[in-house]
Amino acid sequence: MNLDVLRHADVSPAQTASPISLAGAVAEALREQFPARTAPDIWPASLVSREEIIKRVSDRAFRTARPETVMSRARGANRILQWLETFPGETWQQRWRACPTTSRPDRWEDEIRPWVLESGYQTSLGDLKAGTLSLICADVVRPELLWLTGRSSRFLRDAVAETRDPEGFARLESAIEPDLWSSRVGSLARIQISMIIIAKGGRIRDITVGDCLELIETQLQERIRTGKRGDLSLFYTWLHGQGIFPSDAPTTLRSFRQHAGQHSVSSLVDRYRLRCQPVRDLIVDYLAERQPKLDYTSLEDLSRTLASRFWADLECHHPGIDSLELAPEVAAAWKERLRTKVTRVRRPDGTSVDVTSTREGAVDLLMHVRAFYLDLAQWAAEEPARWGPWAVRCPIAQTEIDLKKRDKQQKARMDQRTRERLPVLPALVRAADRRLKEARARLEAAQAALASAGFTVLGETYTKATGTSFDDPNRTTTVYDAQGVRIELSKSENRAFWAWASIEFLRHTGARIEEMLETSHHSIVQYKLPTTGEVVPLLQIAPSKTDEERLLLVTPELADVLSAIVSRVRDSSGKIPLVASYDLGEKIMNPPMPLLFQWKIGGHNRPVSTNTIRKSIHETLESAGLTDGAGNPLYYQPHDFRRIFVTDAILSGMPAHIAQVICGHKNINTTMGYNTVYPAKVIEAHRAFIARRRSLRPGEEYRTPTAEEWDSFLGHFERRKLSLGVCGRAYGTDCIHEHACIRCSLLRIDPHERPRLEEIRDNLIDRIAEAEREGWLGEIEILETSLAAAKEKIAQIDAEKARTSTVVHLGLPTFSQIACRSTDAKEPSHDPA
Q: Distance of CA 496 to CAs 24, 312, 504, 769, Å?
């Protein structure tokens, strides 16, 4: 999508218009960049005589398997042409536009039937419809899109595909999955393509972006009138994949009416209809001055604060105000209104009442307004002519924006959330896994059942609905439960999977939700250690809030999650589809990327939205039945997993400055703010310790880890390798049993080293026999302890081998198979997690 066009899209000021229709601005920009084709009045087929047209619709290309159908089409086409001859025009298209088709596109046959009866012709309504189809397929007339919207059918679709562009439709069909091609949404997409060919002429390769925009807007208007819902842009995605559009054409039109795009500063301010033009211009100039240093979301929030919360509120309560120098009583009343929030609540009896509460973000709003006054005062010294007239006393004192109390309250609330949610996190993980398995069991049972048949799964009885596909009515996954409630099992399984994947991803990475949703196949990389050549899996977190990218070490559990996601989103060719996501912060469409968090709905590969993740997690929590200390339902926000990740990591011994690097925080105080320490004495002791350590060694403790520290960290994992496997001791700890590894519970035996372990066992047996012969009783006790440990580890290997041999292979790829790329960079990753 041409982002420059969308970024600078503007609308008329709000003083003379209703509030801005943000979707309208984006649509207008697209229409200007990609105009639709204009249907001409004359083309060769519209000039031929009626006799030649009737002969043509009776040719082989228009014949069907039923001779009576051919006769019906020719008879109906002849009557329609005779009727059109009664209207002025040199071509059939001009006569078509002159007849009363546009006024009544839904029942235009009612206009021609009286003429047919008066003329004495024996022509039925079916003949007229068949004749219309023949004239359209022969390109004699080109009805408008509005006329076609209420008259499209699969018969029209098939006829156009056979007669107008069979090669183009065949090429398109070869690029689409068979199930999607024959599905209900696929049938609608083919009808839409046929409608454009009918209305605009040409073939599939001649369709333009503007034609698609015009069709979607026409159908949206019709659906608004009729109350229908559903996506209408799948056909555009198909056509875009054919490569017939320009390189700067948008990859999808699915959401161009819902997504606003960026707007100019004047448009942001004019939403609130400020009556004082000088102050309105001042706010616009101020925002334009600050715009280069702000992201779009911050700019939009600041415009809302200054234009709506500040000046529009003053104009509402003090009509005619035109100066920033506020009287003390005016400023006090405004600040009181700002700190108060009024919410209308509906009572059980149907009446409504206003409930007054304290606004939590009032201090932040006051800070924005105070900064506005102070900036004007500072700029007035630099540019007196421009800013000097507006430099006045600030009505907000420094004491009114003290954040210490608010920060303490916020820290206490966040700590309480973490204390409630950290202990029950394992229960949530188990609930997500159980919910996913149950959803898959229901879906598999529904897929195996026949249409309209009942089936039982997990102790519940369902009745399968009849599918809308013409090819296979059993392909639907819609069922009805025992109470007759309609359930889409495929959607339920989708939501269960993404709830499980989101919970696992967030708790293992500590990433923000926007970072998770922006993770792509390119984020999965492999790093080769420069000393040993061992491959280390890494996950690259794209820049988000702090504009700093970072690398995370992928744990085995996270690798399983990534493998499951990659296996799910791959298409039939084994590739991850490219999808374009919408940046809710910057209000722009991102370029197509192989995002991991995507799913297919209505034939589209769409990014999984933030709302979908939140709803899916809430559904999992409801199924788990978790409650807080007061017995109320316990809910997780995606950011709760980030706080839990930091708290658990620091409690497990991870240094705070390492956790800071992993989380991508610029300030270590932010990381410590995420950390929740439980006992009050520990909190006080920790703060005292930090204060002492900062005074003694501030430069050594709060810094970026050195290369030697990273080498020591990586070397720890290399030094844990043993002849029988790997030692599982934690980083920074020494061997606690003087390297008596055969008896250590932390030794992870490599199954391939079983023969070596058997040799150790046999040697121990021989040594015990020797000790018994020589009477070395103390040696016998030590050797028997080691022999028991060796036998136990051999039994563990056998049990693990038996368990893995009975597990059904799910087809999940290994990390090496899903990694997008490998790196042999000499610099190690700054992430020990």
A: 35, 45, 12, 59
Compute the mean pLDDT over every residue in the chain, rounded to the nearest whole number: 81
SS3 of 445-512: the string is HHHHCCCCCEEEECCEEEEECCCCCCCCHHHCCEEECCCCCEEEHHHHHHHHHHHHHHHHHHHHHCCC
Phi, psi of 247 (to 5 degrees): -65, -25
What are the C-alpha distances in Å from 243 to residues 208, 246, 248?
Answer: 11, 8, 12
Tokens of 217: 């807007």
- From the CA atom positions of the chain, what is the Rg in Å? 35
Please name which of 504, 538, 540, 501 lies closest in space to residue 519, comparing C-alpha atoms.
540
Q: Which residues contact 204 (CB under 8 A, 6 or more apart)?
A: 165, 168, 169, 171, 172, 193, 197, 239, 242, 244
pLDDT value of residue 727: 77
CA distance 66 to 45: 26
The token duo for 672 is 């410590």
Kindly tell me the number of DSSP H helices and DSSP E strands found in the chain. 36, 16
Residue 430's pLDDT is 92
Q: Which two structure tokens, joined as six digits, stand for 84?
A: 């059109």
Going by C-alpha positions, the residue among 832, 742, 732, 719 that lies closest to residue 788 is: 742
φ/ψ of 759, rounded to 5, equals -65, -40
Residue 514 has pLDDT above 80, yes or no: yes
pLDDT digits (tens, 9 = 90+) for 138-175: 888 888 888 887 666 677 788 888 888 889 999 998 88
Question: Which is nearest to 643 in space by CA: 407, 424, 414?
Answer: 414
Give all domains of the chain, ordered by start, each with its CATH number: 44-241 (no CATH), 265-402 (no CATH), 425-624 (1.10.443), 638-701 (no CATH), 707-818 (no CATH)
**380 to each of 389, 390, 457, how far by Cα in Å?**
8, 8, 74
51: Cβ contacts below 8 Å, ≥ 6 apart: none
Whether residue 455 contacts residue 464, with contact meaning beta carbons closer than 8 Å, is answered with yes
27-85, pLDDT tens digit by residue? 677 778 888 888 888 988 888 888 888 888 776 555 555 677 778 888 888 888 888 88
Neighbours of 700 (CB within 10 A): 8
Mean pLDDT of 767-777: 85
Do 443 and 426 meet the contact criterion of CB atoms below 8 Å apart?
no
219 pLDDT higher than 90:
no
SS3 assignment, position 410: helix
3 state DSSP class of 822 = strand
Q: Are strands 478-480 and 460-464 parallel, antiparallel or unpaired?
A: antiparallel
Closest C-alpha among 522, 529, 525, 523 to residue 825? 529
pLDDT higher at 631 or 501:
501
Is the per-residue pLDDT at 99 higher than 70? yes
In this predicted structure, the answer to whether residue 829 has a pLDDT above a threshold of 60 is no
**Rounded distance, CA 659 to CA 682, Å?**
19
Angstrom distance (rounded) from CA 831 to CA 833: 6
Q: Give every CB contact of residue 526 below 8 A, 6+ residues apart in sequence.
A: 535, 536, 537, 538, 815, 816, 819, 821, 822, 823
**Residue 547: which of 514, 521, 581, 577 has the closest Cα?**
514
Instruction: Find how far residue 365's CA is from the centre of its chain.
Output: 30
**Contact (Cβ atoms closer than 8 angstroms) between residue 703 and residue 657:** yes
Q: How far is CA 393 from the centre of its chain?
A: 46
Q: How confident is the model at residue 4 (pLDDT cuts 50, 70, 90)?
A: very low
Q: How far apart are CA 430 and CA 620, in angstroms?
A: 10
Task: Give the SS3 label for residue 48.
Answer: coil
Position with higher pLDDT, 23 vs 141: 141
Q: State yes or no: pLDDT of 603 exceeds 50.
A: yes
Helical packing angle, 328-339 and 362-382, nearest 10°: 140
